[in-house]
Amino acid sequence: MAEAILKQMEKLEAAEDFFKLFEVPYDLRVLRVYRLHILQRFHDYIAAASLDISSKTDEEIKQSYAELLARAYEDFVHSNAQNEKVFKVFKEQGKHLPQKAIQFVSIDTLVGKEKLKRKTQ
Known about the structure:
Elements: H1 3-11, H2 15-21, H3 28-49, H4 58-77, H5 81-84, H6 88-92, H7 107-111, H8 113-120
């Protein structure tokens, strides 16, 4: 029953294509920054919803997916990648070191003050 919408989704390439297909309004500035995060969150929401698409029409699936995509998009309108922790790199961030162990390291400590002075002169 729901093969048409799923086939359409398989052909999509850009994040904008998903928003157009599901008729979800978006701000291009937000989408440019968080496109991969939004699409991953959308995928996560689809997996968590475990919709029985075999018994739904294309229009019902389109409506359900549109709601999930809008929800994923809204997550990043009011937040950011570090707070939302969609990807493993953000989930793992800070797990291995206590917050107090993270310190500022200046560039001159890394390359040496003498090399830095020569390059800036």
